[in-house]
Specification:
Length: 91
């Protein structure tokens, strides 16, 4: 877990993909996924706050799908992956 914050500032594509109302709060989650002690993926996740109103950093380290399914069934999920050169701070 690198960062967890509640925000109303996010890219337009996030607002569109999540069908957000103007200034609707979201959780912005940044984390690294490790394999054999090496960072394999850097995740930047946006999640409507109303889905998990009281999300903690400890909870956000684990399965978000499991947490969400405790309150609502997941019928469909979409995740986009992009290969990029890492910024210096993430290297």
């Amino acid at each position: 877990m690198l960062d967890l914050r509640r925000t109303i500032v996010y890219p337009d594509y996030v607002a569109s993909k999540l069908d957000l109302a103007p200034q609707e709060p979201v959780w912005q989650i940044e984390r690294l996924r490790m394999a054999d002690g090496e960072a394999m993926t850097h995740e930047q996740i946006y999640l409507k706050q109303k889905i998990l109103p009281e999300l903690t950093a400890h909870e956000a380290q684990g399965s978000l799908y499991r947490l969400i399914e405790q309150t609502i069934p997941i019928g469909y999920a979409n995740q986009e992956l992009e290969a990029v050169v890492l910024e210096k701070r993430l290297k």
